[in-house]
Structures
1.
Amino acid sequence: MNVVGYVRVSRNEDGENGETIITQQDIIKKFAKENSFIVSKMYIDDNYSGYTFDRPALKEMLNEVKNRNINVILAKDASRLGRKNGQVLVLFDEIKEAGIRLILITEKSGGLDVSSDDDNFLGIKTWYNDFYVKDISRKIRANMHMQQELGKLIMGNHYGYNKIKVLEGEKSKFQLVVDEDIRPVIELIFESYLKGMGYKRICDILDLKYYPTPSEHIRQRHMNNGRVFKNKSSTKWQTHMIYRIISDDIYIGTLTTRKRQAEGIKGKQKNIEKCKQLKFPNNHEAIISKEDFKLAQEINAKRADKSCRESMAKYNYYFTGFIRCGDCGKCLSGIQIRRRINNINAYNCTNYIKYGKKSCSNHTIEEAQIVFYLKEFLKEIRDKYEDCINNIKIEKKKKRIRNSLGNFEARLKIEEEQLKLSFIQKIKDIEKVKGDGEKEIIESTYENMILEKAKKISSLKRNIEELKKINNIDNRIKSNIEIFDRIISLEAPNRGDLERILDKILVYHDNTLEFILKVNIESLTLDY
C-alpha cells in the first residue's frame, strides 16, 4: 500500500507565527504511526497560496493519482489541499473516483475520510476556507492601500536599490538604499542613452561587461541568502529592460506607489493609470539627476515618432528626430545624394518624398550645410552674451549660495522642531488645567505661536527654493555655453550634446534654417 502525505503553507495566509511545514509533517507522521501506515513520500509546497492550484508538489502528486500509483493521501485539513471552494470539491471528487483514500486528519473529530464519510460537511468547510482567504485578501489590500497613501515602502525588489529596515523612533520602517554594485549599471545606461545610443546597443555593452540583468541579480541575491527564486531569470539584457529603467523615476529619488493592482486573488496584474498613482519625491537617494532623467524622457518621446526615423538608421544621420519641414510640419527623412567618389548625407521633406509637389516642395539640404550653419548660430549666441556670461562669477556665487542655503536649512530644521514641540507642550499644558476658561486662553496663546512658526517655516522654504533656482540658472548657463563650444570645435556634433541643447531644426522651401534651442540664454541672463 502506497501512503503519501501532502503539506502546504503560505506565509501570506498563515502569518509568520502560523503553521509550519514541520508541524504539519509531525501531525501526518503521528497519525500514520497510530494507524499502522508507512508514509513513503511527503509532497511539500512551501510558501504557495491555497487559492492557486499551480503548485509543483500538488501537480506531481495528482499525476501519480491519475496513474493509480497512490492508495492513501494524508493531509492535516481541507485548507492544505486548497482554499478555492469549487476547485477543491472537484479535486476531492477526482481523488474519490480514482479509488484513493484522502484522509484529512484534524477535520471533524478524529479526522475525515473523504472516500467514505459524509461530504456535506466538506461543502461547508471548503466554502469557509474560500471565504477566509477572500476576507484576508480584502484586509491585506485595504491595509496596503493605506500604506501606499502614506508613502510607505511596501514594494519588493527594485534594481539599483536595497530595501532595508531602519528604526524611526520606537517604530521601524523600510527604506531604499542605493545598491553600490548596481549603481554603475544604472549610470552607464543613462549615460549611453543620452549620448544617442539605442536600447539594443546598450544591451550589447552591458552583456560585454557581464553586468547582471534585473532578474538575474534578484536570483543571485536569493541564492546568496539560501532562498529559491521561483520566477524565470534572463542572463542576457533585452531592450524592454532598458526601457523600464530609462522610464522609471525611482532613479531620481521618487517613490511611486499603486502602479499595479491584481484583479481578484492571485489574479493578473493590471497597470493603474498614471493620474491615479501616488508619487513621493525626494523619498530616497537619487542615482540620476532630475535634469538627465527629464532629457531621457524627451529623447524617448522623440524616438517614439517613427516617421522621423525612416531611413535614418542605415547611414547614421546626425539630426535624426530633430529636423522638420518648416512649411508642412512633417519630419525630414535622410536621403543619399550620389557622387562619383562618396555619397553625401542629406535630408528632404517626407511629404514631398511620398506624395510629390501636391503635398510639399522639394527642398533637399545637405547635412554638412546644417552642421556649418548650426555652428555659426551658436557662435553668434555665445558672442552676443559673452560679456554677461563672463561676469558670472560662478565659483564665488556658488560658495555664497551654499553658505546661505546652509544657514536657511539649519534655521528651517530648528523652526520645524520647535513647531513639533509646541504641539506636544500645548497638549501637556491643556491636560494640567481643569477650567474651560483657562483651556481657551492656552488654546489661543498656542494658536498664535504656532501660526507665527508656520509663517517663518513657509518664508524659509521660499528662500531656500529661490536660492536653489538661482544656483540652477548659473549651472545651466555655464553648462550650455560649454556645450556650444564643444559643438563648434568638433567636426561632427555629439548626439548627447545635441539632445541637451537642441529642440528642433526647421527647414523651409528656400533652404532657410531656423534653430530652436531648449534653453533661452537671453531669458536666463536677465537675472543678472
2.
Amino acid sequence: MTRNQSRLSVFKVQSAECKVQSAKCGERVCVRVFHFALCTLHSALCTGLLPLVLLLLAPTTVSAAGAQSLQSFLDLKPQWPDLVGSSFRIEGHYAILVRDSLRMKNCDLPFKASQPIKLVGNSKVLEVSGRLAKEATSGKLYFEVEQVRQLPTDVQTLAERERAITRGTSKQWYELAEWAGPRGKFYNDEELIERAKLANRKGLNLERQELKELTPAALRTLTLRIPELGLDDSLRLDWLHESYWLEWEALKKSAPQVDLTVEDIDLTKDPVFQFLNRLDKDLPGAKARVADVLPLLANEYRRNSVLTYHNASDAKRRTLERLFHTEIATAAIARATKPDGSNGSEIANRIDELIAEQHELAEKYRDAELQFMAKNSAALTRNQLGDLVQRCRDRKQESLAKESIARWLARREQSLRKDGVTGLIQLSDERLALLQDQPGAGALLLEALQLAPKNEDILERLKKLGYQEVNGQWVAPQVNPAAPNTRLPVTIETELERFIRLGVPKIGMTPAQLLKCLGSPQSLTRVATSGRVTETWTYRDGTTVRYSVTVERRPSRGTAEVVSVQ
C-alpha cells in the first residue's frame, strides 16, 4: 500500500465516523463540509498541492456552534458549487424582502422560502437557516430558506456588549472593535464605524492605565498603535507631545554642561540640540514661524503645557508646538553661549535659524561679539583689524571701530618705536590710513625728523600733509601765519598707493612702502652676496605664513625694492 493510499484509508474512516456523529446531532453541514475537506485534502496529497489547499481551506471553515456572518459566507463563494445541499445558519443585514424572497445586503445570491416571510420590528438584522440549492432547469444557485429569525440591530448588539465589558480589559474593547469595525465597513454603517473607533480608544486608554510606569518610550510605543487602530491623528499628536514634555523635564536635570572653553563648540553632539531636532521632525508646527502669540495663551501653556495642548484646537496646537520649540531652542542656545560674547556671531546665526522671530536678540549677540573683539583688537593682525573695522562700520558702530584702531595702534607703537625713524614713519602712515588723524600723523613725523633732519621720506610726507618750513621750523597748515586757513593739497592716489592702503604687497615697492603696507615682519632673514643683499620678510597670521616678501638691495646703485611676493 502506498503512502497516499494509506492516508486515503484514514480519511475514509474519519469521514464515516463524522457521518455517524452528525446523524446523532442532526447537523448535516458538519458532515458535508468535513467530507468536502477530506476529499480536497486527498486530491492535494496526490497532486503535491497540499500546502496551497490548506491555505485556501483555512478561511472557509463553517462553525456549527452558532450563526456565521454574511461576510464569512461570502468568503466561501468559490466553493458554493461544491457545497450544494450543505446547511448554513447565516446572520446579516437584508436589503429587500418580497413575500417569500429576500436579498441580503451586498450578496447577489437569491434567498427563497417555501412560505411568506413575516418580520416584526425595524431591525434589518436576520438569522437565516437553510441550505445551498441549485435550480433544476437553469442550474443557478440559490439559498433555500428554512427558518428566519429577526435579531437586534447592530447598535443594540454593540450596546449590550459594551455593558458587559464596562469594567473589562483593554483586550475586550479591542475585540469588540474588531467585530464592529469590519462590520461597519461591510454594511457602510458610519455609526458602527465610529463606535468601533470609540471602543479602540477605550481599549487604548485602558492599556495606558495598565502601564507600570508612564515613560516617554512607553507613551511613544502606544502612539505607534493609534494609526493601526484607525484613530484620529490628533490623539497621536496629543500623546506624542506629552511624551516629549516628559522627556524634556528629565533632560533639563540630566543634560551635561557644554564645555565653553573650547574654541569651536560642536552643537551636533549636544543632547539638547539632538532633542530639538527630533521634536522638530515629529511635531508639525515646531518649525513654523509664528508672528504673534497671545500672552494669555503663552502663559497658560507655560503653567500647564500638557493639559493646554490636550484641550487646544488643531490651529492652536501648531502655535503651542512652536512655543515648545522656542523654549527648547532658547535653552539650547543659552547653553552654548560664551559669557564674554566671543561667539556672538555663531549664537546670532543660530537664533536666526531656529527662532527667526527673535532677530533683534540675534543682533544684540552680534554687537556683543564686536565689543569683545574691540577690547582684544590689540592682538589682531593688520588684516584682521581691517575686517573688524569694516564690520563695525557696516553695523554703524563707528566709535567702536575707532576704539579698536586706537587699541591696535597703541600696541603697534610699542614695537615700532623700537625701529627708530623707520618705525615712526610707519606708525604715522598707519595712523593716517586708519584714523585719518593728520595732526597725530604729523606729530609722529616731526618726532622722526628730530632723529633724521635730512630724511627725504619724512620731508615728503610732511609736505603732503600741508606742513611748511617757516624760519627753519616745520609748522602745521592750520597755524601757518601766512595762510591760516589753507586746505591740505588734493592728491591723486596712484595704483601703488592704493595697494599700500589696502595692505596688499606688490613687486616694485620700496622697503618703506612695504612697511607702510604691512608693517614690520614677524621674521627677517638677510643673505649678502657680491654687490647685492637679499632679504626675506615673513608675515604670519598666527602659525600660518600669510606673505613671504623678497626685498633686493643694491648698495652700489643705492636702490632697494620688492622683487618677489609669495
